[in-house]
Amino acid sequence: MEPKIAQKSPFEVDLTEGVTVYWCACGRSATQPFCDGTHQGSEFTPIEFTPIKTGKHYLCGCKHTINRPMCDGTHLTL
């Protein structure tokens, strides 16, 4: 099963060093780019991410990045 493309650009989010977040891998969460549990009962699992520095991070919106959860530009090929 392919993930749903939430958007064809990264999500710019402010994250805090050492504070773990869960990136939505299925693309169906209403709280993009973060998991809200919508994946329950599917083959998808959210990706745990703990930033090593505070500041802006660019999390994948297309859900096809190889560098999960970070945007790697894959959305440009979709």
Automatic annotation (TrEMBL):
<dbReference type="InterPro" id="IPR018967">
    <property type="entry name" value="FeS-contain_CDGSH-typ"/>
</dbReference>
<dbReference type="InterPro" id="IPR042216">
    <property type="entry name" value="MitoNEET_CISD"/>
</dbReference>
<dbReference type="Pfam" id="PF09360">
    <property type="entry name" value="zf-CDGSH"/>
</dbReference>
<feature type="domain" description="Iron-binding zinc finger CDGSH type">
    <location>
        <begin position="46"/>
        <end position="77"/>
    </location>
</feature>
<dbReference type="GO" id="GO:0051537">
    <property type="term" value="F:2 iron, 2 sulfur cluster binding"/>
</dbReference>
<dbReference type="InterPro" id="IPR052950">
    <property type="entry name" value="CISD"/>
</dbReference>
<feature type="domain" description="Iron-binding zinc finger CDGSH type">
    <location>
        <begin position="8"/>
        <end position="45"/>
    </location>
</feature>
<keyword id="KW-0479">Metal-binding</keyword>
<dbReference type="GO" id="GO:0046872">
    <property type="term" value="F:metal ion binding"/>
</dbReference>
<keyword id="KW-0408">Iron</keyword>
<protein>
    <submittedName>
        <fullName>Iron-binding zinc finger CDGSH type</fullName>
    </submittedName>
</protein>
<dbReference type="GO" id="GO:0005737">
    <property type="term" value="C:cytoplasm"/>
</dbReference>
<keyword id="KW-0411">Iron-sulfur</keyword>
<keyword id="KW-0001">2Fe-2S</keyword>
